[in-house]
Amino acid sequence: MNIPNRITVSRIMLIPIFMIIMLVDFNWGTMNFLGAELPVTHFVGGLIFIFASLTDWVDGYYARKYNLVTTFGKFLDPLADKLLVSAALIILVELGFAASWIVIIIISREFAVTGLRLVLAGEGEVVAAGGLGKIKTTAQILAVTTLLLHNPIFTWIGFPFADVMLYVALIFTIWSGWEYFYANRTALMASK
């Protein structure tokens, strides 16, 4: 396994740690972070989420720079993103910070695109992340981060940036999902 794929696997391994920090009541108290009052566990969980999300950029950069792009990496990298974001969104629903209907749509799209990738992989085609998919992932990460950290900075001016970003992420999630299916409609219909 090459270094970019190891970085991707490490991102997946951070998910249970992130979940434990966010869901177990460690009673570490609260803190003020850039105007937002939040439990220390949310701050630590937010930092873990940010770090795990940054590994997505690192593994992709490293794979392209050193020509280490593999079929395994093309499959595992977007899957790792989906697992990380899905875990965070489900936690945000449990904590009451995200509407369940939005999270259901986002996760449903992720399952659908992963299913499409599996069908096409069975036909010998690998579907790498496209431009809209990357924007979608960035919007989701930004929305989740600001929700985990209780809308930092924007709390001072009373603007619900985190909630707005969640809707932006929802729009790009739907749009990029439609793009994947539309772009691969011929191959999907021809699959046996």
UniProtKB/TrEMBL annotation:
<keyword id="KW-0594">Phospholipid biosynthesis</keyword>
<keyword id="KW-0443">Lipid metabolism</keyword>
<keyword id="KW-0472">Membrane</keyword>
<dbReference type="InterPro" id="IPR000462">
    <property type="entry name" value="CDP-OH_P_trans"/>
</dbReference>
<comment type="similarity">
    <text>Belongs to the CDP-alcohol phosphatidyltransferase class-I family.</text>
</comment>
<keyword id="KW-0808">Transferase</keyword>
<comment type="function">
    <text>This protein catalyzes the committed step to the synthesis of the acidic phospholipids.</text>
</comment>
<dbReference type="Pfam" id="PF01066">
    <property type="entry name" value="CDP-OH_P_transf"/>
</dbReference>
<dbReference type="InterPro" id="IPR004570">
    <property type="entry name" value="Phosphatidylglycerol_P_synth"/>
</dbReference>
<feature type="transmembrane region" description="Helical">
    <location>
        <begin position="12"/>
        <end position="31"/>
    </location>
</feature>
<keyword id="KW-1003">Cell membrane</keyword>
<feature type="transmembrane region" description="Helical">
    <location>
        <begin position="83"/>
        <end position="107"/>
    </location>
</feature>
<dbReference type="InterPro" id="IPR043130">
    <property type="entry name" value="CDP-OH_PTrfase_TM_dom"/>
</dbReference>
<keyword id="KW-0812">Transmembrane</keyword>
<feature type="transmembrane region" description="Helical">
    <location>
        <begin position="43"/>
        <end position="62"/>
    </location>
</feature>
<comment type="pathway">
    <text>Phospholipid metabolism; phosphatidylglycerol biosynthesis; phosphatidylglycerol from CDP-diacylglycerol: step 1/2.</text>
</comment>
<protein>
    <recommendedName>
        <fullName>CDP-diacylglycerol--glycerol-3-phosphate 3-phosphatidyltransferase</fullName>
        <ecNumber>2.7.8.5</ecNumber>
    </recommendedName>
</protein>
<feature type="transmembrane region" description="Helical">
    <location>
        <begin position="153"/>
        <end position="175"/>
    </location>
</feature>
<dbReference type="GO" id="GO:0006655">
    <property type="term" value="P:phosphatidylglycerol biosynthetic process"/>
</dbReference>
<comment type="pathway">
    <text>Lipid metabolism.</text>
</comment>
<dbReference type="InterPro" id="IPR048254">
    <property type="entry name" value="CDP_ALCOHOL_P_TRANSF_CS"/>
</dbReference>
<keyword id="KW-1133">Transmembrane helix</keyword>
<keyword id="KW-1208">Phospholipid metabolism</keyword>
<keyword id="KW-0444">Lipid biosynthesis</keyword>
<dbReference type="InterPro" id="IPR050324">
    <property type="entry name" value="CDP-alcohol_PTase-I"/>
</dbReference>
<dbReference type="GO" id="GO:0005886">
    <property type="term" value="C:plasma membrane"/>
</dbReference>
<dbReference type="GO" id="GO:0008444">
    <property type="term" value="F:CDP-diacylglycerol-glycerol-3-phosphate 3-phosphatidyltransferase activity"/>
</dbReference>
